[in-house]
Amino acid sequence: MMSKPQHDGQQTDYAFFFDIDGTLAPLQDMPDAVQIPATVIEQLIDLSKLSDGAVAFVSGRPLNQIDHLTQPLRGAAAGTHGAEIRTLDGQHLGASADTQQLRAIEQQLALHTDSMDGVWIEKKGVAFAVHYRQAPTAQQVLHQIVQRIVDGYPAFTVQAGKCVWEIKPRGYDKGKAINYLMMTPPFIGRIPVFIGDDVTDEAGFHIVNQQQGISIKIGAGDSEATHRFAEVEQLYRWIGNLLNNKITLQTMRSV
Ligand SMILES: [Mg+2]
C-alpha cells in the first residue's frame, strides 16, 4: 500500500498561500533559472490534497509562469501581484490594461534603459519588470525613470522588489488577492497562512494578520509578518514537518 502522510486534521482548518521567488525557490540572477525542487512540488501536492485544494500561489509572475513553475499542480493562484486571479474552480479575474498604454510604456522604458548595461525589461502581460540585479548602482536612477513614466499613466503604479522595479495596474496587490480567494471555496472559512520574502508580500502579511492567520517572512528586512524563517530551506523543512504533524499551526497563530 502507498504510504500516505498521516495527519491530525489541522490541514483542513487552514488555507496556504505561497509566494514563489525567494520563498519556494531560491532567487537566481535570471528569473528564467528559478526552479522549485521536485521534492518540494511533491510536498505541495500532498498539502493540497490534505487541505482539499486550499493551497494557492501568490506571485509577481503571470499565471502562465506560475503554472509552469508549479506543474503538475494547477490550483488557485494569483499572478502579477494580484492583478490576475484564478479560483480553484477555474474562474479567471483579471485587470484589463489599455494595450495602447502598455505599448507606450514599453517604448518609453526601452528608450530610457536600452543603453543601461545590466538592466533589462521583462514584459509580463499587463505589467513590466525592470530588472537591475546585474546593475545594482542603477537602483535610484531607474526608480526616477520608472516613476516619471508611470506618472503619465494614472492607471498604473510602481512596485518595489528585490533588484526590480515593477509597473503594474493600480489597485491590485497580494493582500487583496488573498482576501478575494479567502471568500471562495475551498478557502472560505479557513485560517490563512501566507509565506513570502519581499516588499510586495507585506500587503499579504497585513491581510493575513487581520484575519488572525499566520504570516511568515523569509530572510531579513522590516516586515509585518509575525514569524520569520532565515532561508528558503527552513520553509522546506517546515512544510515537511507540517505534513508529518511535527508542528501544530495553532501555536503559531497571531491571536
Ligand atoms: Mg518573492
Tell me what the structure shows:
- The structure is a single chain.
- By secondary structure, the chain is of the alpha/beta class.
- The chain has 2 domains: 10-95 and 172-252, HAD superfamily/HAD-like (Rossmann fold, 3-Layer(aba) Sandwich); 99-169, 2-Layer Sandwich (Alpha-Beta Plaits).
- It is built from 7 helices and 12 strands.
- It has helices at residues 38-50, 63-70, 99-113, 139-151, 174-181, 202-210, 232-243; strands at 14-18, 55-58, 77-79, 84-86, 92-94, 120-124, 127-131, 156-161, 164-169, 191-196, 214-218, 227-229.
- An 8-stranded mixed beta sheet has the order 5-4-3-2-1-10-11-12, sandwiched between helices.
- β1 (14-18), α1 and β2 form a beta-alpha-beta unit.
- α1 packs across α7.
- The protein starts with 13 loop residues before the first strand and ends in a 12-residue tail after the last helix.
- The site of magnesium ion has 7 residues, from loops.
- This is Trehalose 6-phosphate phosphatase.
- Pathway: Glycan biosynthesis; trehalose biosynthesis.
- InterPro entries: HAD-like_sf (IPR036412), HAD-SF_hydro_IIB (IPR006379), HAD_sf (IPR023214), OTSB-like (IPR044651), Trehalose_PPase (IPR003337).
- Its cofactor is Mg(2+).
The CATH homologous superfamily of the largest domain is called HAD superfamily/HAD-like
Q: What order do the helices and strands follow?
A: EHEHEEEHEEHEEHEHEEH
CATH overall fold name of the largest domain: Rossmann fold
Oligomer: single chain
Indicate the proportion of strand residues: 15-25%
Most strands sheet: 8 strands, mixed
Bound molecules: magnesium ion
Q: How many DSSP H or I helices?
A: 7
Strand order of the largest sheet: 5-4-3-2-1-10-11-12
- Class by alpha and beta content: alpha/beta
Specify the overall morphology.
globular
CATH class of the largest domain: Alpha Beta
Helix content: 25-40%
Which architecture of the largest domain does the CATH hierarchy give at level 2? 3-Layer(aba) Sandwich
Pathway: Glycan biosynthesis; trehalose biosynthesis
Organism: Rosenbergiella australiborealis
Cofactor: Mg(2+)
InterPro entries: HAD-like_sf (IPR036412), HAD-SF_hydro_IIB (IPR006379), HAD_sf (IPR023214), OTSB-like (IPR044651), Trehalose_PPase (IPR003337)
